[in-house]
Amino acid sequence: MNLFLIVNNPTKTDLITLNSFTQSAENFPDVNIIVLDSIDSFLDYTSSHQISSNDAVYRITKNNISRKIELQLLLKGIKSLYNKDLWLYKYKSKTILNQYREVQMVSTQVVLSSDKGYLDNLVEELGGYPIIIKAPKGRHGVGVIKIESHETLYSLVDFMMAQGIDVTLKKYIEADGHYRVIVLDNKVLSTIKYNKPDKDFRTNAGEPEVYPINLSQEGMDVALDAVSKQDLQTNFGGVDLIWSEKDQLFYVMEVNFPCFFPRNEMVDSLSISSAIIKYLLDK
């Protein structure tokens, strides 16, 4: 078993903890200690080694870089001291949870480094340019940027990382809009479609044009599956779907909770708030 010890910018007490582990490991011939002290050391190791589900991780230091390394290792299914996979909720990332639960979502890569070769590999995994770069906490398309070249990607990632902004890359899907599906208690209550505005690739930018639509069974199944895989978070959600003509598949963009369900009520003949109240009364 490889035991990954994460030690980035350690304090004196962190080094004492590291020393305790390395000394104790000498009594376990089947345990190989691997110290990861930076994002680069993690990327260097994973570029030339396979990580096994029999490996384990212990994070000694508590800073943001250490947490990023730990998260990437946990996503590979290795052992830890967390109870089952409840670490997903510690990290509070819907993207991470949906990836781990194998939701049929738009292909996504969390950026760990501004290294150009590393970024080129991520773009290749997403199917090439154009791609989408997304900053956290934006609403109505704010922070969603379409990237069509290496030059733009490199400079933008440099800027965002220098500002301490978490960077996510997503596959670009050409579409004339997206769907907001309201799910409650494993049932689809309402679906509306957002039309893409003129002169913009973002399907929810500005004041959206929306209308009710009958979603196919395939689309409903994808939305229901996405909400069911939120586990402890909720059995209610506003699922944003996008249809890929190229792949002939629906992909999940986001699972929102809470969500602005009144947008559906404005154009669909259904009181979603009434359905929520009834559900809570019957629960």
The secondary structure category is: alpha+beta
Enumerate the spans where pLDDT stays under 50 for 5 or more consecutive residues: none
Please describe the biggest sheet, giving its number of strands, its sense, and whether it closes into a barrel.
5 strands, antiparallel
Q: Tell me, what's the shape?
A: globular
From the 3D structure, determine the CATH topology of the largest domain. D-amino Acid Aminotransferase, Chain A, domain 1
What average pLDDT do the residues reach? 87
Rg (C-alpha, Å): 22 Å
How many distinct helices? 10
> Strand percentage, roughly?
15-25%
Give the N-terminus to C-terminus distance in angstroms: 46 Å
Nutshell version of this structure?
This protein is an alpha+beta fold and 283 residues long.
Describe it.
With 283 residues, the protein is an alpha+beta fold. The protein folds into three domains: 2-81, Rossmann fold (3-Layer(aba) Sandwich); 108-171, ATP-grasp fold, A domain (Dna Ligase, domain 1), CATH 3.30.1490.20; 177-282, ATP-grasp fold, B domain (D-amino Acid Aminotransferase, Chain A, domain 1, 2-Layer Sandwich). Helix content is 35%, strand content 24%. The protein has ten helices and twelve strands. The chain has helices spanning 12-25, 39-48, 64-75, 87-91, 94-100, 116-125, 150-162, 217-228, 262-267, 272-282, and strands at 2-6, 32-36, 56-59, 108-110, 131-134, 144-147, 168-171, 177-184, 187-195, 209-212, 236-244, 249-256. It is globular, with a radius of gyration of 22 Å.
